[in-house]
């Protein structure tokens, strides 16, 4: 039985699914996760094109190097762009690269497209918009800045909810940074904390034109249904586009669904045709191999040993692909398989918790201790958020103990002096294996917001290559090294005291953070 059939009951009408080619097309020894390509495009690449980064500083330096080297396109999707000196340096790099492009003998080819969230990017007098307006003014034909505004923040709600609190309703949360044919997937935003002492995850996919094209088209699609930043700091929709909070909500969401699904399905069709062509051309006696012989084989790319699957989650638009794939991975994980799952904000959906507690695999869940939570020390109500996460963690731990699952499901808290923790994703180790063959990396936190409110994207990376598996294993080990195992005594520490009002309020607001 193919695993993807388990997804059938979850498929909603707004998410059309095209039947995949029969499994007879799969090459010998094909990996066991090819069912994912029934939902999204499958990109086969060489593992030598994948590099796992480990530190914020490395991530920041790579961003600058890639911007300076870009010739055709820079596409950056993030929650927001910060306003400090490090972020200003990124803007200078963009300006310098655009200036070089203008001075080139031929017509300027470089295009810069930036997608941010409207509410987060507009926070404060100095904000993401004011950082980017000089680029729009100087390079109006080459630069596009799109600000996504959730359709769920509208009417009286939009008028009444103050700045910062309005960000709880829904956000553009995707983090993708691409330069020509090089793509960085991460959970990190474009802000100085993420360049210095906020731990996240980052992977570089080098010389991957098909993957770069896909994410360019995805960002363009979201950009088309977003507000466009103008040179005078006003915003307006593209001509003929339904407005996200002034226009009809159903019509807007239908258009957005159609635009995003067009990107996913057209890329999927392209990759299926490429897969078929590659498979048939490599068969003995095929017309290609018999007619062109060794010359054809020289032109063919090396056999892929790594596969990339983009997983998109946009519940406001009726797109739930990431949720479906994640739930199926958790459901299908076999006995003695190990899943290392990490999130900076431990607030799992009920469905994910039920699967973790009710399935057979071993789980090692890494989460932030209160001191490394991104909200630790925040002013006002936000300062109580780490305590709310402690309360949620304690409730889950109590359930694990009640079900006597402590050996199989283990919680670990990341703790590192002077740092905050923002890493998210998972690593899957098959039964009997010391190395992971699959990882999920990107923006989702596995919480209610990621599943229901925000726009999210991550990739599943599946690899048969031992060197890349080792890279992923080292990444996991490095993160978990800075952690301690959670036990009953953890919640008896003074810093784990949760005030009564936080306990009472948390169940009411946990769906907003």
TrEMBL record:
N-terminal signal peptide: 1-19
Enzyme class: transferase
Pathway field: Phospholipid metabolism; phosphatidylglycerol biosynthesis; phosphatidylglycerol from CDP-diacylglycerol: step 1/2
Gene3D superfamilies per record: Endonuclease Chain A
Chief place of localization: mitochondrion
Keyword Repeat listed: yes
GO molecular function: ATP binding; CDP-diacylglycerol-glycerol-3-phosphate 3-phosphatidyltransferase activity
Its EC number(s): 2.7.8.5
Designated gene of the protein: Pgs1
Source organism per UniProt: Sylvia atricapilla
Name of this chain's protein: CDP-diacylglycerol--glycerol-3-phosphate 3-phosphatidyltransferase
Catalytic activity as recorded in UniProt: a CDP-1,2-diacyl-sn-glycerol + sn-glycerol 3-phosphate = a 1,2-diacyl-sn-glycero-3-phospho-(1'-sn-glycero-3'-phosphate) + CMP + H(+)
Protein family: Belongs to the CDP-alcohol phosphatidyltransferase class-II family.
Low complexity compositional bias, start-end: 281-297
Physiological role: Functions in the biosynthesis of the anionic phospholipids phosphatidylglycerol and cardiolipin.
Record GO biological process: cardiolipin biosynthetic process
Location(s), subcellular: Mitochondrion
Domain of life: Eukaryota
Span of domain PLD phosphodiesterase: 168-194
GO cellular component terms given for this protein: mitochondrion
Region feature (Disordered): 278-300
PROSITE patterns named in the record: PLD
Transmembrane segment boundaries: none
């Amino acid at each position: 039985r193919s695993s993807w059939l388990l997804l059938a009951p979850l498929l909603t009408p707004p998410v059309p699914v095209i039947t995949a080619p029969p499994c007879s097309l799969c090459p010998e020894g094909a990996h066991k996760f090819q069912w994912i390509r029934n939902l999204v495009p499958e990109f086969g690449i060489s593992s030598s094109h994948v590099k796992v980064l480990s530190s914020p500083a490395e991530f920041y330096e790579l961003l600058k190097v890639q911007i300076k080297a870009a010739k055709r396109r820079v596409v950056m999707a993030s929650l927001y762009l910060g306003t400090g000196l490090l972020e200003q340096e990124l803007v200078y790099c963009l300006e310098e690269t655009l200036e070089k492009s203008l001075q080139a003998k031929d017509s300027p080819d470089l295009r810069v497209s930036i997608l941010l969230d409207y509410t987060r990017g507009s926070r404060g007098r100095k904000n993401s918009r004011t950082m980017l307006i000089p680029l729009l003014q100087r390079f109006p034909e080459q630069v596009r800045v799109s600000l996504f505004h959730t359709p769920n923040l509208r009417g009286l709600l939009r008028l009444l909810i103050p700045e910062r609190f309005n960000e709880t309703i829904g956000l553009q949360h995707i983090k993708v940074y691409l330069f020509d044919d090089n793509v960085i997937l991460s959970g990190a935003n474009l802000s100085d904390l993420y360049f210095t002492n906020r731990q996240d995850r980052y992977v570089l996919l080098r010389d991957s034109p098909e993957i770069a094209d896909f994410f360019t088209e995805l960002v363009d699609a979201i950009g088309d249904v977003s507000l466009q930043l103008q040179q005078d700091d006003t915003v307006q929709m593209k001509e003929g586009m339904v407005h996200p909070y002034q226009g009809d909500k159903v019509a807007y969401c239908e258009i957005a669904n159609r635009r995003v699904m067009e990107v996913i399905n057209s890329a999927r069709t392209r990759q299926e045709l490429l897969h078929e062509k590659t498979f048939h051309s490599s068969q003995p006696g095929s017309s290609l191999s018999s007619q062109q012989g060794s010359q054809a084989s020289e032109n063919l790319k090396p056999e892929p040993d790594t596969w990339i699957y983009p997983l998109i989650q946009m519940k406001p638009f009726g797109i739930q692909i990431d949720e479906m794939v994640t739930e199926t991975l958790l459901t299908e994980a076999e006995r003695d398989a190990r899943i290392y799952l990490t999130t900076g904000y431990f607030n799992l959906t009920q469905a994910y918790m039920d699967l973790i507690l009710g399935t057979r695999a071993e789980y090692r869940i890494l989460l932030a201790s209160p001191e490394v939570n991104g909200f630790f020390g925040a002013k006002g109500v936000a300062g109580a958020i780490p305590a709310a996460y402690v309360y949620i963690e304690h409730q889950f731990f109590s359930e694990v103990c009640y079900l006597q699952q402590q050996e199989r499901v283990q919680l670990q808290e990341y703790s590192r002096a002077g740092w905050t923790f923002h890493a998210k994703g998972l690593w899957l180790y098959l039964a009997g294996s010391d190395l992971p063959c699959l990882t999920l990396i990107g923006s989702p936190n596995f919480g209610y917001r990621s599943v229901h409110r925000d726009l999210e994207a991550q990739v599943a990376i599946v690899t048969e290559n031992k060197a890349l598996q080792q890279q992923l294993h080292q990444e996991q080990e490095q993160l978990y090294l800075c952690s301690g195992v959670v036990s009953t005594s953890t919640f008896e520490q003074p810093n784990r005291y949760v005030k009564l009002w936080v306990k009472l309020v948390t169940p009411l607001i946990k769906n907003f953070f």
